[in-house]
Amino acid sequence: MAYNRDSLVTVSFEPLGGDFKMWRYASTDATATVAGAGYIADALKMGMKVGDVVFVSKTDTNAITIHRVTAVSGAGATLSAGLAIT
Fold it and tell me: What is the distance between the alpha carbons of residues 36 and 44, in angstroms, rounded to a whole number?
């Protein structure tokens, strides 16, 4: 499955403490896929920045991982490998 814009929502519209926003993304994609280079294709348009935090909910297993945005470019955003919440 590929990135789905409709599954990405802003959790905090203003940067928290002036530093970062929080996002939520729901997908059946593997964690490694979501953390792939440029996966979030419209990150610049969405206002995503390096340091933002993304909670990824894997809808087929109910697993949740937390990622940090490590790069944003015209090619999209790249997320950290992710930390599983158990």
Answer: 16
User: Which residue is listed with tokens 């790069």?
Assistant: 71
Number of helical H runs and strand E runs in the chain: 2, 6
Each residue's pLDDT expressed in tens, for the chain with a length of 86 residues: 689 999 999 998 776 667 889 999 999 999 999 999 999 999 999 999 999 999 999 999 999 999 999 999 988 999 999 999 98
What is the pTM (predicted TM-score) of this model? 0.91
**Distance between CA atoms of residues 32 and 11, nearest Å:** 22
